[in-house]
Amino acid sequence: MAWIKVCQVSDIDEYMPKAVDVAETKIGIFQLNNKYFAIENVCPHAYALLTEGFVEDGTVECPLHEAIFDIETGNLESGPGCRNLCTYPVKIEGESVLISLEKSE
Ligand code: FES
């Protein structure tokens, strides 16, 4: 699996996810309970960046029409999100956050 360094752990906190572009793919890096998750950052309903949404109880709410996605699984919980989000493997090496573009699902 090819790993790509995308940011530092200090760039992210629970309520401030990080938007990154990797090979023209927009990905959001989120932190929950000191674990890190990478999910597709563009809401499938219309074009909105989920890293600009609202993080609460392990979910992120789309800033445009309020679809709610589970951050860990990418699953659509409610609202007009159309489908689940792609998720990507994440690993931490020292202070660096690395992801792989191999989709977890
Ligand atoms: S753009 Fe996300 S719910 Fe509409």
Task: Please explain how this structure is put together.
With 105 residues, the protein is mainly β. 0% of the residues lie in helices and 44% in strands. It has no helices and 11 strands. It is globular. FE2/S2 (inorganic) cluster (FES) is lined by residues 43, 45-46, 48, 62, 64-65, 67, 79-81. FE2/S2 (inorganic) cluster binds next to loops. Residues 4-99 form the Rieske domain. This is Non-heme iron oxygenase ferredoxin subunit.
Summarize it:
It comes from Ignatzschineria rhizosphaerae. With 105 residues, the chain is mainly β. It has strands spanning 4-8, 18-22, 25-32, 35-40, 54-56, 59-61, 68-70, 76-78, 87-88, 90-93, 96-99.
Topology:
Elements: E1 4-8, E2 18-22, E3 25-32, E4 35-40, E5 54-56, E6 59-61, E7 68-70, E8 76-78, E9 87-88, E10 90-93, E11 96-99
Antiparallel strand pairs: 1-11, 2-3, 3-4, 4-9, 5-6, 6-7, 7-8, 10-11
Bound molecules: FE2/S2 (inorganic) cluster (FES).
Residues 43, 45-46, 48, 62, 64-65, 67, 79-81 line the site of FE2/S2 (inorganic) cluster (FES).
**Structural class, please?**
mainly beta
Mean pLDDT reading: 95
Ligands bound, unique: FE2/S2 (inorganic) cluster
Major beta sheet summary: 4 strands, antiparallel
- List the helices and strands in order: EEEEEEEEEEE
The low-confidence parts are none
Distance between the termini: 15 Å
Provide tags for this entry.
mainly beta; 105 residues; four-stranded antiparallel β-sheet; globular; binds FE2/S2 (inorganic) cluster; 44% strand; 11 strands
